[in-house]
Amino acid sequence: MWMNQSGSVRHDEVSSQSQAASSSSCPHADLSLDMSQACPCPCSSTRGSNSAVFSVQTAQNNQAAGERGAPAQPEEPSRHVRMMKVVLSVLLVLVAVSSTVAKPEKGSEKGPPKRGKRVPQTLSRGWGDQLIWAQTYEEGLYWSRSRRKPLMVLFHLEDCPHCLALKKVFSESEEIQKILDEDFIVLNLVYETTDKHLSPDGKYVPRIIFVDPSMTVRADITGRYSNRMYAYEPSDLKLLLSNMERAKKLLKTEL
């Protein structure tokens, strides 16, 4: 469109001005302003205030939505707390396993012996549970020499009736047990040794031989039987006590 000489406006100019006005609501949009400087017109402040109001309203809406029903996220436990839980779990498992292993089977528990009697020790074999018995003849000789005490060697068998009868009175005699505990090294054997001096008149049971700390067999200390010179019966406890005293006296005089 164009204007004639009478003052009509050209159609193309009007269109371009309309497009420029519609492309920007700011009347200064066609000015060449520095982008770092704010627009001096009121429209720029209006746009900034509108954006700030929208941001505040959005934050309030989000907070309200969280208060209405949004589940709170639980805090992740610290590493120290997790380690403590693992350690406690392991300890509980170990306690449970140890209690199960250590628990005895029903009926396997044994209480203390009745009437105050002690269970015979392995080395005593019922001849005196309160005594300290040597395990071998060689050990008995070593103890005898190092402690300067005579050694009493007692030969017996578990199924021998004469041995069982002597064992009963021997173990029940407080006097014999006391002297042996204080002044003797004791050894009981259910087998013969290779030392022939321990069987001067034969290998029979029960048989009691005394040996001094110089490792000499005291063949002169005998019982009352000529065919079994070192045998003792349950009725021979007084003779046995006498021979024990002889072994002690001879030991002192000889040393």
Q: Would you write up a description of this structure?
A:
The chain is mainly α and 255 residues long. The protein is 45% helix and 6% strand. The chain has helices at 11-23, 42-68, 79-102, 137-147, 161-172, 174-183, 237-254; strands at residues 151-155, 185-189, 207-211. A three-stranded mixed beta sheet has the order 2-1-3. The chain is elongated and about 90 Å long.
Secondary-structure blueprint of this entry?
Layout: H1 11-23, H2 42-68, H3 79-102, H4 137-147, E1 151-155, H5 161-172, H6 174-183, E2 185-189, E3 207-211, H7 237-254
Parallel strand pairs: 1-2
Antiparallel strand pairs: 1-3
Give a summary of the structure in a few sentences:
The protein is mainly alpha-helical.
Largest sheet: 3 strands, mixed
State the helix count. 7
Please compute the radius of gyration using only Cα atoms: 57 Å
Percent helix range: 40-55%
Order of helices and strands: HHHHEHHEEH
What global shape is seen?
elongated
Number of strands: 3
| First and last CA, distance | 156 Å
